[in-house]
Amino acid sequence: TMAQGQQDNDGTKGGDWKELQGLHAAAKEGDVERVRQSLSQGVDVNLQNEEGMTALHWACEQGHQSVVEVLLQANAKLDIKEMDMGMTALHFAIPNASIAEMLIVAGASAYAVDSDGVSCLEMCEDEDQGPDRIRHDRVRSLIKNPPTFKKST
Known about the structure:
The chain is about 40% helix and about 0% strand. It contains 8 helices and no strands. The relative contact order is 0.11.
């Protein structure tokens, strides 16, 4: 067992890193029951691995809508950026319109930018995101609080 506060190879401190890996693996695999079990055992839904990925990142990347629902119900943070490209869960969800829509309705920012300065909103028009991606006009219709820009005088 690790001492409280000790860092292990998953880049997190404290807690049982095997449980964290278990949550990440379950989210990536789309195993809703294992995700629920990990969360009920007290695993922090927002813990990040050494790459800064959370269970929500993995579920979005793999297109596991039912896992995303469970993670959102467990108050998964929407603004955490992974370390490789600085992407939020919404960046990963763009190829899957229904998951992206869930995140936006939950409050994810379509204006969040990755480390290259590309926003989720910009990704919507990228054909490389696939035919099932959420479209720009749908995102705009879902945004609750679009940013306001002051006109220069």
